[in-house]
Amino acid sequence: MTLKRKFIENLLEKSKDFSEGDFFPNKVELKISELENFDAAIAIELSQIEEVVITKTDNIGQSDCKVKLINNGNDNIQFYPTVLKNYLKKL
User: Fold this and answer.
1) Going by C-beta distance under 8 Å and a sequence separation of 6 or more, which residues neighbour residue 86?
2) Closest CA to 46 of 88, 75, 13
3) Handedness of CA 69, 86, 28, 32 (dihedral sign)
4) What angle do CA 56, 85, 65 make, to 5 degrees?
């Protein structure tokens, strides 16, 4: 198991009690200080990757709404669990 996969699985484990949302995925925010083995290098790498969160369709066509895999601040990290789960399938 790669360190990146383990990092993402740890985030998903910590967020398993949060609702993922019905029509639009919910964003989860966790304190970095509460995460075990937080790897800042992996967090920075993941914060530079964008993935599709939803695809909108209108009379002109379809467009993808993209978000960064994670956003990290001073002592918090924000992410959409649904987007991380989909990204894990690609690894």
Assistant:
1) 51
2) 88
3) negative
4) 20
Helix 3-14 vs helix 81-90: crossing angle, to nearest 10? 150
DSSP state of 27: P
Which tokens hold the place of 6? 């383990």
Residue from 11, 24, 17 nearest 76 by CA: 11
Q: Is residue 20 classed as helix, strand or coil in its secondary structure?
A: coil
- Tens of pLDDT, residues 7-63: 999 999 998 887 666 666 788 999 999 888 889 999 999 999 998 887 777 777 777
- Select the more confidently predicted residue: 68 or 54: 68
Query: What is the C-alpha separation between 28 and 77, in angstroms, rounded?
Result: 8
Confidence category of residue 1, pLDDT binned at 50, 70, 90 = low
CA quadruple 28, 32, 33, 37: dihedral sign? positive
